[in-house]
UniProtKB/TrEMBL annotation:
PROSITE patterns: HTH_LYSR (PS50931). CDD domains: PBP2_CrgA_like (cd08422). This is LysR family transcriptional regulator. It comes from the Bacteria. Residues 1-60 form the HTH lysR-type domain. It comes from Piscinibacter koreensis. The lineage of its organism: Bacteria, Pseudomonadati, Pseudomonadota, Betaproteobacteria, Burkholderiales.
Amino acid sequence: MYENIRELVFFLRVSEETSFSAAARSLDLDPSTISKVVQRLENRLGVRLFHRTSRVLKLTQEGERFLSAAQKVMQALEEAEESLGPASGEVSGTLRVSSTPAFARGRLAPLMASFVEQYPGLRVEFVLAATPPDLFEQQIDVSFQSGSIPDSTLVARRVASTRWRICAAPAYLARAGVPTTPDDLAHHQCLNFLQGAFRSQWPLRRGDEVHTVVPKSNLVANNGDMLCALAVAGNGLARLADYHVADDLAAGRLVTVLDDYANESEPIFAVYPSRRHLSPRVRAFLDHVEAHFGGERAPDAAPPARPPAP
């Protein structure tokens, strides 16, 4: 059994480094040792795990499938070891969390008082921006993103969902009329995200089909809170998420329109670099978030690529 685990460790390290030499350096071993152990693993499995050329070392299709299974095995081993460690006193240091300002204000801020009370030795830093960050460059522990995740190497754990709605102030609708079909948008002032941004496209469902509309607007912004403020002030229609408009809808400052066409539900993911060696502070924060967003949790996933943010 020890030799099997050793083979998995070597295989995973070679997969990460895409080089026998680099894997050997990281493990402080001779490259020939790494190569022999991986070859022994291939012989035992009866398949070739790597395409080997003088320039490229790449996983085969069988290697890709085995990689996924091997990662799960190593994760299970690590979790088994961690379960025997001390249950308290480990959650400390600095946790860096990335999100859009609106999602942080509407969904994360209400969770923080109980979290910091539970872990007083932990410092939490919020890094807020309209677009997803480079997790490695900015040393982000957890990034909250919606829709699909562009980098398939990241772990994306679904923790919640939100709905995007078309809203306007009652005063604007009294003045301009209430749209009843997507075609009516052409006759309205639409408040939108900057041209070319993913959110500037409005998906509208007609029957079983979804059509994308990019409404023209004289008022645009790169921030949902600004669009919400413009809508409340009676400047037009805006398509925004629940966490942008919940308070204004509840107070009657905004009302929704075209609900039969625009009521898209979208998953929200906690995105982090790797399942391996997940720090206690990240694990504690993810558990806390999922406990408060209960009922919306789904298995880890790597959704198809596209670049949105909540």
